[in-house]
Write a structure and sequence with these properties.
The structure holds 2 protein chains of 2 kinds. By secondary structure, chain A is mainly alpha-helical. Helices cover about 80% and strands about 0% of the residues of chain A. Chain A starts with 10 loop residues before the first helix and ends in a 10-residue tail after the last helix. Chain B has 2 domains: about 170 residues, P-loop containing nucleotide triphosphate hydrolases (Rossmann fold), CATH 3.40.50; about 70 residues. A 6-stranded mixed sheet of chain B has the order 6-7-8-3-9-10, with helices on both faces. Classes of the chains: A mainly alpha, B alpha/beta.
């Protein structure tokens, strides 16, 4: 059920035009500069060259996009599950929250550059280390968003439910969980933008295939055009995932589109 | 017949004494108001009744037995309407019944015939944010009374409304109350509202709250929707005097 966006009569397309224009002009300036300066494509390839490389190497790129997508989805699914499960546990056990939360914060201070090779060393060149790294990078924003979201529940609503004889579990399901949803989606949108990048980085450190490997090989053979081709694909992936979460968010938080509330 | 009785209730929140020797009672079918300044601890009395807090000293009895043995006799309407913004109006109205164990279908069967009376017919599928302040308040009230509990606890139900809507809502509410005769405990700091709606009024002191006066309001109903009588005016002035000067022991 698609609801028309209220209060934005222009719709999403019209609002996208300025962004598309500025992006287009940036590429245009880049193209013109490369042509006029005669700079070597080994230094700086023109956007047109990157595009033609994408077309030329489409089979190779596609074959390497699949493993990256697989790592992204598996890692994200893992982190989503863990974040949700943990957040519920932490909400019901405040003492555990105080004990564990610092550990999660520390997990976010680990530099990916250092931790990724170790994870690959421990778990090999298969899917596992990528999944773990994607999960490590993406789970924290969602966990924090959920925990904060539960805490932001209107105490009046909780008192009301308690007056109706609701148990802690019923209060969680009826009030705390739905209250946390706007927060959760804010965290989700941050996480999803990290996910593809994390997968590519994990591949870069050690993998048999994937966009990270494309980038690594292209760099080693002095092919910046191919590097950028892989970058374009990765950006597109992130944009698509971001759009998907935005669509899901709009469906789940439909109540926020109405009236003047919230 | 006395339904609810509180005797010598004392309660502190942390170091702060909030209730200091509160004794009151509520009869079947009676409309009793707790009138007091903001922050006096009126809402604390409701939290005690709904089981969120426990008193430090004193007894609460319901039908002559300790309250703990009669759980869930109250339907509570909190200060702000506390409608769940993510639920449609109909799901908000059935909330209390569903939490109390009704199936969704059974709960709806109870709610639907009342929609008209509460001016909510046609708005079942709306979200609370789409309703006016008065409608939200009516929805919150319907959600409260439909639970079928013997005693209604209303915490400043009209406090958040603008003056005009408030008067409309009070008039409408009096009409509804005259037919339904819910046993009601109302919290307010609005003297006029207390005089217009109550059978009896307890005047509370500032925190720590104790009962400064107990005043019966024998006036005929309906009282709203017509000129305020001189007796009502005199009573309002008297109550205001107690509240402002805190001297009026009766």
């Amino acid at each position: 059920m698609v609801q028309p966006l209220p209060r934005h009569p222009g719709g999403g397309l019209a609002r996208g035009i300025p962004a598309a224009l500025s992006l287009l002009s940036a590429f245009l300036i880049w193209e013109v500069y490369v042509r006029l300066s005669g700079i070597s494509p080994l230094m700086l390839p023109a956007p047109s060259r990157v595009l033609s490389q994408i077309v030329l190497n489409r089979t190779m790129l596609w074959d390497n996009t699949i493993p990256t997508l697989r790592a992204t989805f598996a890692g994200f699914a893992l982190s989503l599950t863990v974040a949700f499960g943990l957040s519920i546990m932490l909400d019901f056990m405040p003492r555990v929250r105080r004990a564990l939360f610092p550990i999660f914060v520390v997990s976010q201070t680990l530099p990916l550059v250092a931790i990724a090779p170790l994870v690959v060393l421990w778990f090999g060149f298969d899917l596992t280390p990528k999944v773990l790294l994607v999960a490590l990078v993406t789970f924290f924003p969602m966990l924090v968003a959920l925990v904060d979201g539960y805490a932001a529940t209107d105490p009046e609503i909780e008192n009301l439910l308690r007056s109706m004889g609701a148990t802690r579990r019923v209060i969680f399901r009826r009030a705390r969980l739905p209250s946390a949803m706007p927060y959760f989606f804010a965290g989700l949108r941050i996480s999803i933008t990290y996910a593809v990048v994390a997968a590519i980085f994990a591949e870069y450190v050690g993998a048999r295939a994937g966009l990270g490997i494309v980038i690594l090989n292209a760099k080693n053979s002095f092919r910046p055009d191919l590097v950028l081709a892989a970058v374009v694909i990765s950006s597109l992936l992130t944009l698509i995932l971001f759009t998907c979460t935005a669509l899901i968010q709009r469906a789940v938080l439909r109540w926020r589109d109405h009236g003047d509330g919230a | 017949m006395t339904v609810l009785s509180m005797q010598n209730i004392r309660l502190s929140l942390g170091e702060t004494p909030v209730l200091d020797d509160i004794s009151l009672h509520l009869n079947n079918g009676e409309f009793v108001t707790l009138l007091g300044p903001s922050g006096a601890g009126k809402s604390t009395i409701f939290r005690l009744l709904t089981g969120v807090l426990t008193q430090d000293a004193g007894h609460v009895t319901y039908d002559g037995n300790p309250l703990a043995e009669n759980p869930q006799r109250f339907a509570f309407m909190p200060q702000r309407d506390a409608l769940l913004p993510w639920c449609r109006v109909l799901d908000n109205l059935t909330l209390g019944l569903e939490v109390r164990g009704f199936t969704r279908r059974a709960a709806r069967e109870r709610v639907l015939p009342l929609l008209d009376d509460f001016g909510l017919a046609g708005f079942e599928r709306h979200y609370p944010a789409q309703l006016s302040g008065g409608m939200r308040q009516r929805a919150a009230l319907l959600r409260t009374v439909v639970q079928g509990q013997p005693v209604q606890l209303l915490d400043e139900p009209f406090g958040a409304l603008d003056a005009l809507t408030r008067t409309q809502m009070q008039t409408w509410f009096e009409e509804r109350w005259r037919t339904a005769r819910w046993t009601t405990l109302l919290i307010t700091h609005d003297v006029r509202e207390a005089v217009a709606l109550s059978d009896r009024i307890y005047v509370l002191s500032p925190r720590p709250a104790c009962i400064r006066a107990e005043i019966a309001v024998p006036a005929q109903r309906p009282r709203l929707g017509q000129p305020i009588t001189t007796e009502a005016h005199a009573l309002e002035a008297h109550l205001l005097d107690i509240l402002l000067n805190q001297t009026g022991e009766t």
